Amino acid sequence: MNIQQLRVFAVAAQCKSLTEAAEALGIKQPTVSFHLKKLETALGVELFNKQPRHFRLTEAGNALLPYARRVSTLLTEAGQIMEEFRHGGRGTLKIGASYTPATYFLPPLSRRIPGGVPACPADFDRKKSAAAHGAAARLRN
Hints:
By secondary structure, the protein is of the alpha+beta class. The chain has helices at 3-14, 18-25, 29-43, 59-86, 99-104, 106-111, 129-140, and strands at 48-51, 54-57, 93-98, 122-127.
């Protein structure tokens, strides 16, 4: 069993035919059949009831489907995060301040960032004045 087979299975499970699954995946219908057959062979079970005009999941197919979807979703998310790193848009914004500014000034300022910065989570650190200055100096070096 491999990732490509699980992705093909997850898409095929949503489609009415192998041809429709192939179109959704942007591959040829024999390739879809190949991946599904390899997956069934690897698992030792039939995943689809294949009859003319009928293309439905078996009980085993229904049991596998949520896992295949989860794997596919996780791979997509991992790819998106790596794409953000490739383009320098991923990381953590670290903001340190002494107690008074951190309590009274930073929260309203952070809410004013237009649209937020979803790809860049913020980490607020509140310290005593001397400790905040020391931490800032270490960040500069």
